[in-house]
Amino acid sequence: MDKQNPSEKRNRRVQRQKQIDAYVKYSGLAFQMAALILLGYWLGGKLDKLLGLSFPAFTILLILVFLSLSFYSLIKSLPKD
């Protein structure tokens, strides 16, 4: 039988945990991006309705602003490899 020594098991466990941590981090970023874009859509719609605009100018503007913020957040969180 092939027995692994304890340090190999620990190294594999640490590597697996690092993979899970990265997955959770980037999944969270995806949800954060979606939430920011939806927030921009909602706020823009409220402003357009409040001001009585027929063209959704603030909706488009705020979606782009929040999209830019979410990409900035994504870029800042990437490792500097």
Description:
The protein is mainly α and 81 residues long. It contains two helices and no strands. α1 runs antiparallel to α2 (57-77). The longest helix is centred in the middle third of the chain and has 46 residues, at 6-51. It is rod-shaped, with a radius of gyration of 22 Å. The mean pLDDT is 87.
N-to-C SSE series? HH
Share of residues in strands? under 5%
Low-confidence stretches: none
Shape: rod-shaped
Instruction: Quickly count the helices.
Output: 2
Main beta sheet: none
Q: Helix amount, in percent?
A: over 70%
CA-to-CA gap between the ends? 40 Å
Q: What's the overall average pLDDT, rounded?
A: 87
State Rg: 22 Å
Structural class: mainly alpha
Domain tally: 1
Instruction: Give the tally of β-strands.
Output: 0
Short description:
The chain is mainly alpha-helical. The protein has helices at residues 6-51, 57-77.
List keywords for this structure.
mainly alpha, 0% strand, single chain
